[in-house]
Specification:
- With about 375 residues, the chain is α/β, with parallel strands linked by helices.
- The chain folds into two domains: about 240 residues, Aminopeptidase, CATH 3.40.630.10; about 70 residues, RNA polymerase II/Efflux pump adaptor protein, barrel-sandwich hybrid domain (OB fold (Dihydrolipoamide Acetyltransferase, E2P), Beta Barrel), CATH 2.40.50.
- The chain is about 15% helix and about 30% strand.
- The protein contains six helices and 19 strands.
- It has a 15-stranded mixed beta sheet that branches.
- α1 packs across α6 and α4 crosses α6.
- It is globular, with a radius of gyration of 21 Å.
- The N and C termini lie far apart (about 55 Å).
- Bound molecules: zinc ion.
- The site of zinc ion has 3 residues, from loops.
């Protein structure tokens, strides 16, 4: 069957791509990769605003996994993760379907900004409303026309502007499937985080789609090392759910599991220098930042309220009262949390190493 038989038309902007009204995976032939522009809304001139999507449908049936990038428009590291996954996809071997939404928040991407046209954080309005404001309708149609087709979701983000992040995963570690996805991603840090309302991850989880968020370093840049690591993690998840052949993989250091995290904020304005780096371990009462007034005099320092690991930090020296300083993760305490943890971590393919809850005895917190 030719793809052009479905309700689609060739894109004038991107030769080889097709414009469609929604993602209809059943209409796509097996063993093919397709570039789509999915109509979502119209701008104030009446021009169509379309989401660029790649779909790889394997020769064999299997699950549907969705990868989403640039939900915040200046968070770019997820885009080459999707590109490279598709460049190396062998459709004769692939079981099931991979959907890569290369840019979720197109207006913000064009503007080099985090937020939507109306300054809405799109990760706070999911699943949107069919008759809501401009951000809510955009969110609603994105969920209805695209996300509902997924059976698994990996949402790719970075730090926000002015901040840098480690490579870390936010996942519900009390859910066996999302805990596995988090470990297979093999990040530097895993942060247990219940899927919250109005985020893409939370909305997808409510729809029964196991989802994790991967925070891939820093905004508005491509970071080769983090991109490579995230791509390997995506492939490991795909192998785990039967989409790709399992193969032995080199293991890096064990991720540090955190039970919670919180930003520490400046309580005055001035020039801020945050001392530790992402992934640094710090102890309660360690000095984490120094602040100077505009004449260069030190006006204060900030200390860690508890032991933890640096998940992310501010790199913007201009800090007004209430500015973010550092995102401090609290390491998961043994015998306290009902988290799924790796029983044995020498092989990241979990087949022979089932997750075990609630003990954390075998988790080597670094
Ligand atoms: Zn984000």
């Amino acid at each position: 069957m030719r793809f052009a038989e479905m309700s689609s038309r060739p894109s004038l902007d991107f030769p080889g791509a097709y414009v469609v009204d929604e993602l209809d995976l059943e209409q796509l032939p097996r063993g093919c990769c397709q570039r789509l522009m999915v109509d979502l809304i119209h701008d104030g001139l009446g021009r169509s605003l379309r989401l660029p999507i790649m779909v790889g449908r394997g020769k064999h049936p299997g699950p549907v996994i969705g990868l989403t990038a640039a939900l915040h428009g200046n968070e770019l590291n997820g885009i080459p993760v999707i590109h490279r996954l598709f460049e190396t996809l062998d459709l004769k071997v692939l079981r099931g379907t991979v959907v890569g939404v290369i840019v979720v928040n197109v207006p913000a991407y064009i503007n080099n900004e985090r937020t939507f046209d109306d300054r809405t954080d799109m990760n706070h309005v999911m699943p949107g409303k069919p008759d809501g404001n401009i951000a809510e309708i955009y969110a609603y149609r994105f969920i209805e026309r695209i996300v509902r087709r997924f059976e698994y979701l990996i949402d790719l983000h970075t730090a926000s502007f002015g901040n840098i992040n480690s490579l870390y995963v936010r996942a519900d570690m009390t859910n066996e499937i999302t805990a596995k996805m988090a470990y297979l991603q093999r990040p530097q840090i895993i942060l247990h985080n219940s899927p919250s309302d109005r985020t893409l991850r939370g909305t997808a989880m409510e729809l029964g789609i196991p989802s994790i968020t991967v925070e891939i370093g820093d905004p508005q840049v491509f970071q080769a090392r983090h991109i490579r690591a995230s791509l390997s993690g995506v492939r490991r998840v795909m192998a785990e759910i039967g989409m790709l052949p399992r193969r032995p993989v080199k293991t890096g250091p064990q991720p540090v599991l955190c039970e919670s995290s919180g930003w520490i904020y400046a309580d005055r304005g001035g020039l801020l220098e945050v001392l530790p780096k992402p992934t640094d371990l710090i102890q309660a009462n360690d000095v984490i930042a120094q602040q100077r007034n505009i004449f260069g005099e030190v006006i204060g320092e900030y200390r860690a309220p508890h032991d933890g690991i640096v998940i992310g930090k501010s790199v913007n020296p201009v800090a007004q009262t209430g500015a973010r300083i550092l995102n401090l993760g609290a390491m998961a305490s043994p015998h306290k949390n009902p988290f799924y943890v790796r029983l044995e971590d020498s092989n990241p393919q979990l087949e022979n190493h089932p997750l075990q809850a609630p003990t954390l005895e075998n988790l080597a917190v670094q």
